[in-house]
Amino acid sequence: MAMKRSVNVKFSEMRVGIIVGVSFLLGILAIVTYGKVHEIFSKQVHLTVLFKDVRGLTVGAPVRLAGITSGFVKEIHLVQIKGERFVQVGLRLDATRLPDLSEEATARIETQGLMGIKFVELIPGDLSKGPLNPAIPIMGSGTQTLESVLGKGNHLVKSLNALSFELNRLIGGLNSGEGTIGSLVTSKSLYQDLDASAKNLNAITQTMRTGSGTIPQLMNSPEMARRLSRSIDHLDQLLQAANDPKGTFGELSHDPDMAKSLAQSLASLNTLLRNLANGKGVAGELLNNEQMTAKFNATLDRVNDLLKDMKDHPHRYFTVEVHVF
Q1: DSSP 133
Q2: Which of 18, 42, 200, 230 has its CA 20 to 30 A from that of 186?
Q3: Dihedral of the CA atoms 142, 144, 147, 148 (nearest 10)?
């Protein structure tokens, strides 16, 4: 019995030791998580930041400089400075990061993730203005809260709602047959017409591939292609000849004197045609004066009658004498 009791006592002590060891490990993990390990193993510098409102910032929250965790929040107090209330936040910052802050450095409270975890973000400022004096409080800027972040999306939400409304209206119009696309969706006749057009187009394409017309021959007949190519070559030669300065067309294109002469000839021809149209001259009167035309026709008739009579009765007009020597 004594032996069993001794064994039970040792087991209980061992269980207590295990619990203590696990608790110790959890404690170390908590220290590392909140950054307080720096307070034990590295040199720290104390900074003070004044905020109007910390929006739920707690002791132990991370302190970041340029996005890098460089310390933690040591303490938070309400203070009165010249009759104005501030929240004084004491920071423990890694001493090696102090040269990265200028006298114009500021701080703001940011929110990480949708869980709303708060942390302090240090803004270095212009280093050319001189280094930061740790004894002088840093003024905090506006707090960046989850509500403000979500508030910036109100315009986006409104835009999405408007877009959703327009899409719903468009889909409703399509379902009710409004517009061409709506008619295609709801009208059987329009769909049938479109289907018939597609079939006709397919038939035309098939005919062009296998038919015997001009276009199918152009597409499929090597002989037709060669003939077309020769025609194009002849046309090209004709155009080259026209551009040749030695030819008639070339002289018309390149010789100013030839072009001037042609222009004068065309002007003279135009004048002649205009005089004929206006009835000027004998030819103009013959074209436009009916009396002149009648007289001319009568004269021709008489001439024709005279010639006919001379042919039928030449002795009336000609005398032949024969002399013998």
Answers
A1: -
A2: 200
A3: 70
